Amino acid sequence: MPKDKIKKIPQLPAMALTRATVEASKSAKPAGRGCHAIIANIIHGERPMTDAEETPSTLLDHLRLARQSSDMAASLSASQLKSAYDVQRGPFRKRPYFVSHSSTDRTQDTSNRAEEWLARRLYQQGKLRLPDGNLLQLIDYQFPLKAARSDAGIGKIDLVGICEGSFGLVELKVGRSNESPVVALLELLAYAAVVRDNLEAISGEAMAKGRCTHALTATRNFIVAPLQFWAKWAVGRRTARWVQFCDIQRELSRHFRIDCLVLHPDPAQASDTESFECHWVDLC
Q1: 3-state DSSP assignment of residue 65
Q2: Rounded to whole angstroms, how far apart are CA atoms 262 and 12?
Q3: Distant-in-sequence contacts of 98-103, Cβ < 8 A, 24+ apart
């Protein structure tokens, strides 16, 4: 066939090709396989983004994904969490922080119920002696942070207190909890970021209600759990996760204080009259 008879296929620019692909996908049926089907499904809102497609930016993003996937938790680094801590803002609660406690507020999750029971018992004890000789005066438990019901992923701080003039945040874990220490650290950091943005309001309310006598301008952060919780992560196949946690905790402690403490005796074995005390966790 003569060359002048051959029709040339018009070449679309790369941008035009991309736009054409997307426009075609909008009118395509979401069902089916292949690249076009995936694009169409995302556009039509019929397939949620996968963890691999989502780029978390705040601590709450990281926390949600880490709870969904142990692989996501295993991929986290201290620099990621520090950056996420720096960019997270709010929420800014307008309602009181120090509220009355009701049995109707209790969660239905077994492990969380045990943590709520432990938080209440420690609060009733009134204080915790720390390994450095200081006292953490416990002033409330199940401390709310949400500004609205729609604030997804924001729970309540297990315990709060005063230590050396700082506002103490305590993340509790019970021995039978299978949540990794990295997730516990993420929870603590997410709550600490919210408190950082609301500390002036929290401090003012605490003084007005007689919970403290001076303004609170800094925080001190604690992860507290019985030995059973800590020990299970330092042996066997979980060792890599333990090393990761130790590395993250060590690096982040250069920016803000995070104390990891063993609660003694184990709450599951303690009598009703025993008092609790804390020891340092032997980090790797």
Answers
A1: helix
A2: 65
A3: 98/140, 98/143, 98/205, 98/206, 98/209, 98/211, 99/144, 101/141, 101/142
- Looking at per-residue pLDDT, the higher value among 255 and 28 belongs to 255
3-state percent helix, strand, coil for the chain, nearest multiple of 5: 40, 15, 40
Class of residue 33 by CB neighbours under 10 A (exposed 0-12, middle 13-18, buried 19+): exposed
pLDDT in tens, 250-275: 999 999 999 999 999 999 999 989 99
Q: At what angle do helices 59-68 and 78-87 cross, to 10 degrees?
A: 130
pLDDT tens for 173-185 read 999 999 999 999 9
- Answer whether residue 32 shows pLDDT above 60: no
* Those residues with Cβ within 8 angstroms of residue 281's Cβ, 6 or more apart along the chain or in another chain: 230, 260, 261, 262
Calculate ∠ Cα 260-263-266, nearest 5°: 140
Q: Alpha-carbon distance 264 to 22, whole Å? A: 60
Task: Give the distance from CA 176 to its chain's centroid.
Answer: 19
Q: Name the DSSP letter for residue 34.
A: S
**pLDDT (mean) for 112-133:** 94
